[in-house]
Amino acid sequence: MPDSVYPVMRVRLLSLLVLWTWFQYSDAFASSFSVATEARAQSENALQQGRETLEASAHAYQHVAALRDVFTYTVTTPSAVLAPKTLEITLGSHNEVALKDPLIEVFAVDSSLFVTKSDAPGKYVVHPYTGDFAKALDAVVGEQGWPLEPLQIAMRLGKGMDGWLTALRFKQLAPLQISGYEKKSDHGLSFDEVHFRADNGWLDADFDSTTHFLSRVSLEAHPPGAPKDVFIKVLGECAPEVLGSTKDLITFDTSGKVAVADLTRLNATQLPTGKLSPSFELENLEGKKVSLRQFKGSVLVLDFWASWCAPCWKTLQESQHLSDWASHSGLPIAVLPIDTMEQFPTKEETRTKATEFFRSQGLTMSSLLDLKSETFQAFGSPGLPSIVIIAADGTIFKYHQGSFPAMLETLEEEVKEAAKVAAQK
Question: What ranges do the domains of the chain cover?
Answer without folding.
Answer: 63-260, 267-424
